[in-house]
UniProtKB/TrEMBL annotation:
Transmembrane segments: 113-133, 221-245
Protein topology in the membrane: Multi-pass membrane protein
PANTHER family: PEROXISOMAL MEMBRANE PROTEIN PEX29
GO terms of biological process kind: peroxisome organization
Domain of life of the source: Eukaryota
Record InterPro entries: Peroxisomal_Membrane_PEX28-32, TECPR1-like_DysF
Descriptive protein name: Peroxisomal membrane protein PEX28
Domain TECPR1-like DysF intervals: 60-409
Keywords per UniProt: Membrane, Transmembrane, Transmembrane helix
Main location: membrane
Compartments, as annotated in UniProt: Membrane
Source organism phylogeny: Eukaryota, Fungi, Dikarya, Ascomycota, Saccharomycotina
Protein species of origin: Wickerhamiella sorbophila
């Protein structure tokens, strides 16, 4: 099992940080002091490749962010207008519009290549044609008319002539606009609350049954999900994707119909009662749980290893300590072939346990005295074992440039 080694601090980072501090301190007045400080910190924390990319883009500026947000806020009306099309589609206020979109969607499902035409078609239908009609209106009556409920005459309220009537119409439109804004805010609040509740349920599932807190329950759910996956994978090849996607689109539109939604709400009450009283799933879980007998009291223990690498000094019997490293640093290791020194730490206590694992002080590092076993087990070539040390094979069988020995320690799992 690999271990984590604490890397020493590099002097190069300090030099870069000092340079950034000087650059920030000597600003030319073109940016705010806070912007300069944050930009300097980003340049220090980023890698060389990211720094090159940062040079191509403008520096971080909070006034620029605020200005962009204000511009977007001023153009929010366009986004609100775009939201009217999905609302009109799902509300079925215009059945002809909804059915037309469904027919186009179905045709695209059976001819996926037409997806490439959607951008140009959207520009034509929602941008160019409405603007053309706006500048060159069709032959329609000059004044809108409204048919009375008890006759065929024109309603006077549809064409206010007096200033008072016009002011009343404007006031009613303003009240309606304010009411719509409040309703939109309320719907947004409800949507956020539903989203938070869904995220809480997802977190509870991920932290509970999906996190193997209860081993038997998690294993049972894993088996059920695996069976569902296998069944879905087997049935996926028998289903036509165009039929599936078109059915999903029609189904979503039909379920959004007001009459259908009312019937669904009535059915939900009955189904929730039946689901609460159902015992099929609890019985299935109770039958599968005993099949997973896991001793949760016994700790999970694994052995981690580290290698102490030394380099030959002036004589054959003089060796200089290099570091404790995860690499054996044999003759054919990538670091050795690229003439790079082994990466590690000079203090054994700096070696940290892997992620989600812990060292116990009652179990210290133990030296492995059987170097011949672990070298043969790993099929390491060009080495010779002598007690705990594994030496490189030099000229005429003499010890080579490096030698290493293996240290092991028990690690306990602690998620």
């Amino acid at each position: 099992m690999p271990v984590q080694i604490a890397n020493p601090a590099r002097a190069a980072d300090s030099a870069v940080l000092a340079g950034a501090a000087v650059q920030v301190g000597s600003g030319d007045g073109n940016g705010h002091f806070t912007d300069l400080v944050i930009d300097g910190v980003l340049r220090v924390a980023a890698s060389k490749l990211v720094r090159k990319e940062m040079e191509k883009i403008p520096d971080l500026s909070f006034p620029a962010i605020v200005r962009s947000l204000s511009i977007l806020g001023g153009r929010f009306k366009a986004a609100s207008a775009l939201q009217a099309y999905p609302a009109r589609f799902f509300s079925w206020t215009s059945p002809a519009f909804t059915l037309s979109i469904l027919l186009v969607y179905t045709y695209i499902c059976f001819h996926p290549a037409l997806i490439a035409c959607l951008p140009s078609m959207s520009l034509l239908l929602f941008v160019f044609i409405p603007n053309y009609i706006k500048h060159f209106p069709l032959d329609i009556p000059e004044f809108p008319v409204q048919v009375n409920a008890f006759g065929s005459g024109v309603s006077v309220s549809a064409n206010p002539d007096s200033v008072e009537e016009q002011a009343e119409v404007v006031e009613q439109a303003k009240i309606k606009r304010d009411r719509d804004i409040l309703l939109a805010i309320r719907q947004g609040q409800n949507s956020l609350q539903n989203l938070v509740a869904s995220v809480d349920k997802l977190d509870a599932f991920l932290a509970g049954p999906a996190n193997f807190v209860d081993i038997q329950e998690s294993c049972t759910l894993f088996l059920l999900v695996l069976c569902a996956f296998l069944g879905t994978a087997a049935a996926a090849g028998l289903v036509s994707l165009p039929v599936l996607f078109s059915s999903m689109g029609w189904g979503a539109a039909i379920l959004a119909h007001p009459e259908v939604k009312r019937k669904i709400e009535d059915l939900k009450k009955v189904e929730m009662t039946l689901f609460k009283n159902s015992t099929a799933l609890p019985k299935l879980m109770a039958a599968l749980k005993p099949q997973f007998n896991v001793d949760e009291e016994a700790p999970i223990v694994r052995e981690v290893e580290i290698f102490e690498v030394q380099r030959q000094g002036l004589t054959d019997k003089l060796w200089d300590f290099c570091c404790y490293t995860q690499s054996i640093y044999s003759v054919d290791s990538p670091l050795r072939l690229s003439s790079q020194a082994p990466e590690g730490t000079r203090v054994l206590d700096d070696v940290e346990a892997p992620k989600y694992w812990l060292f116990n002080e009652e179990y210290p590092w133990i030296l492995d005295y059987d170097a011949e076993y672990w070298t043969q087990d790993r099929h390491i070539a060009n080495v010779t074992a002598d007690g705990p040390w594994a030496y490189d094979v030099g000229v005429n069988g003499t010890p080579g440039e490096y030698r290493r020995r293996r240290w092991t320690r028990q690690a306990f799992y602690s998620p």
